[in-house]
């Protein structure tokens, strides 16, 4: 493992052709060790990158569909061949365990392959213009064409696959794209860009810019050459980007405070296993993570006991160990924030069932009950390994309380009653409802996004391709 880490460090010790004044240290959050240094770009450098990328717009637009498909397929094959190397990079620069990282690499491969397939499905339709009186001599159709230059800003929690979810559809649709990965986890994005070039993607079609969001993010989204912004991150940052970007297309996934409902007829073993995994995957740093669980009173005590018992079995430790279930948060600063939020709830009367302990960047899986609705852990996105359990009288109260927050990404419900399941599907305010599964379920081809404060538009490869194209109507007047 030490030798492999040294290889990764050398691979990403980027030395630009000109001396840079400022570089960003990329460190392992587990022990603070230096992995690599990447350029900390400034606004002028971003402007220059955008100007170069404008040339990539015409290059991308001229690539026929079969070339885009071939490039994306080859890139997927290369990532699959180097899966372990990618997994080590993900695990080292971020919070995921090596087993979680391997699953992310597998999803990245699937995302790229789905993108290749979607490149052949960008279709238009004929339009019956003679539906309007006086238009009998007109025939035509509509087609979809690339947006142009897309700016993508990605978070730290899925540093490879969320980049692929921007890059794959953008290339499939014939666009050029500039990616600004999270400053704490830029290496996976840089590594994927290398693979795309190796797969035959022409220079300037994909650009990765590294730097702090406050230094280059505003410059990037405001640049007039950028025609669309695709952002995944926090609600406050998303709102600021939307204010700054001006008249551009936009797609935003802004996180959530996802609920799960457990009714008394549910398979409790299944519900516990799904919600524990959903709550603590990637140390809870997951936009789909289960944060609030509403349990019917009849089974609340039993469910809580089972949930805590399973949580206490979670193995916290070295990310690169095959035995570890959960690693650290992305920084000690984030772990301290989660610690403060939990303490706020406890001070307000919440009961701590397990966890509540911090060790550096590690925060142990934490389960709370009796949490007042005004506490941050109940109304905001914790983005950490904290879950709150609430007893409810039945489905009506569960739906009402689940909908109280200003988020609506995904939700889950556990029940054997199909009528109650459909009631929840219809009334839960969310972009997706998972029946007999936690909110933390997704495949990369499905439409993905939320309502209210959870975002705008939809990701998922086929739907991202639609977002990343425009419609052009063609009409012929005959005779």
Automatic annotation (TrEMBL):
Superkingdom classification of source: Bacteria
CDD domains: ALDH_y4uC
Reactions catalysed: (2S)-3-sulfolactaldehyde + NAD(+) + H2O = (2S)-3-sulfolactate + NADH + 2 H(+)
Keyword Oxidoreductase attached: yes
Top-level class of the enzyme under EC nomenclature: oxidoreductase
InterPro entries, A to Z: Ald_DH/histidinol_DH, Ald_DH_C, Ald_DH_N, Aldehyde_DH_dom, ALDH-related_metabolic_enz
GO MF entries: lactaldehyde dehydrogenase (NAD+) activity
Enzyme Commission no: 1.2.1.97
Aldehyde dehydrogenase domain boundaries: 23-474
Keywords from the UniProt entry: Oxidoreductase
Its job: Part of the sulfo-TAL (or sulfo-SFT) pathway, a D-sulfoquinovose degradation pathway that produces sulfolactate (SL). Catalyzes the oxidation of 3-sulfolactaldehyde (SLA) to sulfolactate (SL).
Entry similarity comment: Belongs to the aldehyde dehydrogenase family.
Protein name as catalogued: 3-sulfolactaldehyde dehydrogenase
